[in-house]
Automatic annotation (TrEMBL):
It comes from Bactrocera dorsalis (Oriental fruit fly). Residues 94-210 form the Protein TsetseEP domain. This is Uncharacterized protein LOC105228319 isoform X1. Pfam families: DUF725.
Amino acid sequence: MKQSLILRQLTLTEIMKVLTVILLICLANVIGANKVVLPKVNYEGIVDDFIKEAQEITIKTANALESQYKIIVVEPTNQVDAVVQNIEDRREESPKCVEVKDPEVQIVVDSLHDEINVCGAIAVKTSAGIMNDVNAATQQIVLDGYDVLKLYQKCKNYKNSVLKNSCYAKLSIKVTLYIKNSRRSINTIKGAKHRVPAVFSEADDCTHTAADLAIVDLNAIHTDVVSCINENN
């Protein structure tokens, strides 16, 4: 809460600096001044801060998606693989007893993979939508930031004070809009991260249920293999 409050205060400070620039330029034009002393506004810093914040949240969102993927796909798959390995370990004791059950094991495993694909299809589509939203928001911050800095360099290169002041007036308006739009984009990226758990909740239940059923079937197969081995010893 304290950090978000600081960020809001920084945003208001940046906007006030920009508005001060506009006010001073307008005042200078009214009194007929040929030159105005502009307050120092760190345009590069404003753009850089937004880009860094966007990058940080985007990385966290991608990591959250990766973590959810591991939970809904990797974990149940590993659980089933462990039971399959238990059956495979019996092959040394009796290749024939295991071999006769190989088709059944394959059917169970294939069925699980089909279930996981169905369970994860909607989650994958939605997660792709989340990353598209993040990408669009990030592009706004980066590309619009580039436009701000390009105009800033143009303003600095003007030698004529009238042209310079006019350019800085345009820059001030552009930066104000950039701050507003970038803050909205940051909120979009933050919101995308919060959407991740809900997206995968249903898929998580689905894949783990499918894995539990597969484990029950595989344990039954393993029991049959053990019985076969005992009968042949």
